[in-house]
Structure formats: structure tokens, C-alpha cells
Write a structure and sequence with these properties.
single chain, 243 residues, mainly alpha, 81% helix
């Protein structure tokens, strides 16, 4: 199968137009922004000198964005195209499944990271940390995109994507949020990419540098990228996008 940049660019433009008309996806995009604004303004103790409060809000809202957008959005987009049999039409015009998927991945990644940056500034974090923030969130976004893509491939339609995908993705969202309330939950959270991202946030936003002490945290995230990537390749080869 070919892999044409021109075709991918055309598909990306198609995704941008389609995204603007998809009310469900737009609502998901707005939720993390809305919550970050509400919590920043309403939660007592969050101010210019309260880095701890800001960090909690940042971690929660970025986690919500990564799950709803990076994970669930791509699952819904792939399931929608399968439901409409759009891919079959595109394949007749010479578009390969991988080119089709690339358009979905690019738009999902860009939307996820743009929203993460918006949340970063709504919460009021120092711009000096923006580069490391983008690096850490990008790695976790990649892992969640892979997981969401697997869900999108294995389900036949959007309803099934919600039924199958939501419990899986909510697990990634809720376990880090509840980790402070139970040692057992914290033990599970240590193996999740977004929880390790949150741990490194604490180091970065306290003015520290990411070094050998964070090697374990980075390793967990990279392992998830590899595992989710291998799972995606296996699922793609078994099921494909046009079934």
C-alpha cells in the first residue's frame, strides 16, 4: 500500500471540516476547557502563589482531555467512518487504510495538544515550563491515541465505541484521580502512563529537572506506547478498517 503525503494532507483537510460539524466531538473538546476554567476560578486556594492547587487542577483537566480527546475521539472518528462505509469509497479512489488512519491520528494529536496548551494557560502555569509540559503530554497522548484506535477498529459503529471504549478509557482517567485515597489504587496507578506523567509534572513545576530519578516514570510511558502500538498493529492486521 502506498503512503502519499498529498493524500494524507487532503484527508487531514477533510477531517478538519468534518470535525467542525461533529457536535459530539466538539462537546468533548469543550469539557476539559470548561472544567479547567471553572476549577481555576471556583476552587478556594487557587491563586498566583498556590502552585499546588494549580498543579492538581492541571493534572485533572489534562487527564480528562487526554482520555476524552486522544483516546475516545479517535475511537469515535474511526467507528463513524466504518459505520458509514466511507473507507470503502476512499479505497476505490486509491486511498490506503493507513493513509486514512494517518489523517485521523494527526487531527486527534493536534487537537489534543492544542487543548492541553489552552488548559496550561487557563490554569495559569509559568510559560518557562511549557516545553517540558508539551513533551510529557505528547508522549501520553500518543499512547492513548493508540489505545483509542484499537477500540475504533474492533467496534462496528459509534454506539459500540461508547459501550466498549468508555469503560476502558474511564479506567485511565479515574484511577490516577483516586490514587490518593487508597494504597491499592495507587499501586495500580503506578503502571499507568498518565499517572507517571502527573508525577513528573510535580518535579517540573516545582522547578526541578527530569533526570535519572524519573527514568522509571518515562519507562512506564514508553512501555505503554510500545504495548499499545503492538496491540494496534496486531488488531489492524486481524480486523482491518474496512470490515
Amino acid at each position: 500500500m502506498g503512503f502519499s503525503r498529498r493524500k494524507i494532507a487532503a484527508l487531514f483537510k477533510k477531517e478538519v471540516k468534518g470535525l467542525s460539524k461533529n457536535a459530539n466531538v466538539l462537546l468533548m473538546c469543550l469539557l476539559p476547557i470548561l472544567f479547567s476554567f471553572i476549577y481555576t476560578k471556583a476552587v478556594s486556594g487557587v491563586g498566583k502563589n498556590d502552585g499546588f492547587g494549580k498543579l492538581e487542577i492541571l493534572s485533572m483537566c489534562v487527564g480528562m482531555n487526554i482520555v476524552l480527546i486522544a483516546g475516545f475521539m479517535i475511537a469515535m472518528l474511526i467507528a463513524e467512518e466504518k459505520e458509514k462505509n466511507t473507507l470503502r469509497t476512499l479505497m476505490l479512489s486509491g486511498v490506503s487504510p493507513l493513509e486514512f488512519l494517518a489523517g485521523k491520528v494527526i487531527i486527534t494529536f493536534l487537537v489534543s495538544e492544542i487543548l492541553n496548551i489552552v488548559i496550561f494557560y487557563i490554569v495559569g502555569m509559568d510559560s518557562v515550563h511549557l516545553g517540558k509540559f508539551i513533551l510529557l503530554t505528547s508522549l501520553v497522548v500518543i499512547s492513548m491515541i493508540e489505545i483509542g484506535a484499537v477500540v475504533g477498529i474492533i467496534v462496528p459503529d459509534q454506539m459500540a465505541a461508547g459501550t466498549v471504549g468508555m469503560p476502558i478509557l474511564m479506567f485511565f482517567l479515574m484511577v490516577p484521580l483516586l490514587s490518593n485515597f487508597s494504597k491499592k489504587i495507587e499501586l495500580i496507578a503506578r503502571f499507568l502512563p498518565n499517572y507517571n506523567m502527573n508525577l513528573m509534572f510535580q518535579k517540573v513545576f516545582s522547578g526541578g529537572e527530569i533526570g535519572t530519578g524519573e527514568a522509571k516514570n518515562i519507562a512506564v510511558i514508553l512501555i505503554w506506547i510500545i504495548i499499545a502500538g503492538v496491540t494496534f498493529i496486531y488488531t489492524y492486521n486481524k480486523v482491518g478498517l474496512d470490515k
